[in-house]
């Protein structure tokens, strides 16, 4: 079992104010009545999140917080006190960021990117000092592996991002089709793992533009649109993404290949099927 994460536990007994789950060496764990699924019976299993309530008692909930232990998320400060800042993480008890774990002094109603962990006193807390937790192990990815990223900040090269809650990566400008905000979460692909452990990221899977299926998709869309599309290698990245769900770089590679094959013409504001005259 893990504090601050999802666990599958078995219902042990029922009481007026909820049910007790079998926490094995941790003892019986209360799941309050308001969180008990209607179909939960004695001996059946339920997936719950384990945390400490306002009296530091171990308790279960079927609610899923906005961040779990070992994860990064953008959360809003709901209060600042003499012990630190408290964040809304979707549960009744707010998440503490001690003063010592604040990269900059946190202010109420502002949002910050934080890492959630269990401290030495067995409390679930968060830290905005991401470098203490991210990039501490060598990535073992292969080119093309799918990962989840969270954008942390813009850089001269593009955007810095946390990869799978554990590593640092860079998403380069030519991969980005719109401005990305801090805390933006999406799927990405491994381009390269550098010797320093940092990762070059791609929004499109390597080699995707070279597959015949994408070229066929463009031809099919041209055919259904009467042989013309108001897109070209000069179009805005947002317009290309809205039409095909790919970056401008991938689109340019694809239409360039189709033009070399003699299947389309590329004009400043449109692409045309060669078989159709206008």
What would CATH call the architecture of the largest domain?
Orthogonal Bundle
Q: Whole-number average pLDDT?
A: 90
The order of strands across the largest sheet is 3-2-1-4-5
Question: Total domains, how many?
Answer: 4
CATH topology of the largest domain: Arc Repressor Mutant, subunit A
Binned, the helix content reads 10-25%
Radius of gyration: 25 Å
Instruction: Report, as a whole number of angstroms, the end-to-end distance.
Output: 67 Å
Low-confidence stretches are none
- Multimeric state: single chain
Number of strands: 18
Structural class of the secondary structure composition? mainly beta
| CATH superfamily heading of the largest domain | Winged helix-like DNA-binding domain superfamily/Winged helix DNA-binding domain
Structural shape: elongated
The run of helices and strands is: EEEEEEEEEEEEEEEHEHHEE
The main sheet comes to: 5 strands, antiparallel
| Fraction of residues in β-strands | 35-45%
CATH class descriptor of the largest domain: Mainly Alpha
The total of helices stands at 3
């Amino acid at each position: 079992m893990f504090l601050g994460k999802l666990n599958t536990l078995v219902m042990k007994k029922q009481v007026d104010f909820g049910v007790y789950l079998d926490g094995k060496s941790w003892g019986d764990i209360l799941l309050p009545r308001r969180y008990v699924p209607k179909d939960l019976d004695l001996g059946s299993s339920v997936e719950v999140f384990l945390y400490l309530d306002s009296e530091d008692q171990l308790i279960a909930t079927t609610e899923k917080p906005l961040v779990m232990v070992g994860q990064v998320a953008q959360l809003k400060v709901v209060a600042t006190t003499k012990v630190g800042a408290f964040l809304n993480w979707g549960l009744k008890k707010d998440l503490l960021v001690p003063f010592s774990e604040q990269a900059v002094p946190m202010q109420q109603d502002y949002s910050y990117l934080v890492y959630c962990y269990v401290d030495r006193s067995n409390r679930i807390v968060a830290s905005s000092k991401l470098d203490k937790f991210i990039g501490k192990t060598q990535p073992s990815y292969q080119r093309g592996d799918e990962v989840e990223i969270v954008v942390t900040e813009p850089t001269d090269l593009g955007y810095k991002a946390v990869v799978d809650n554990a590593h640092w990566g860079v998403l380069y400008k030519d991969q980005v089709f719109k401005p990305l905000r801090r805390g933006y979460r999406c799927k990405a692909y491994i381009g390269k793992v550098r010797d320093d452990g940092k990762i070059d990221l791609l929004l499109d899977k390597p080699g995707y533009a070279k597959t015949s299926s994408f070229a066929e998709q463009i031809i099919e869309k041209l055919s259904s649109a009467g042989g013309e599309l108001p897109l070209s290698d000069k179009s805005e990245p947002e317009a290309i993404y809205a039409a095909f769900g790919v970056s401008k770089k991938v689109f340019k590679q694809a239409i360039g290949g189709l033009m070399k094959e003699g299947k389309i013409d590329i004009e400043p504001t449109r692409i045309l099927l060669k078989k159709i005259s206008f």
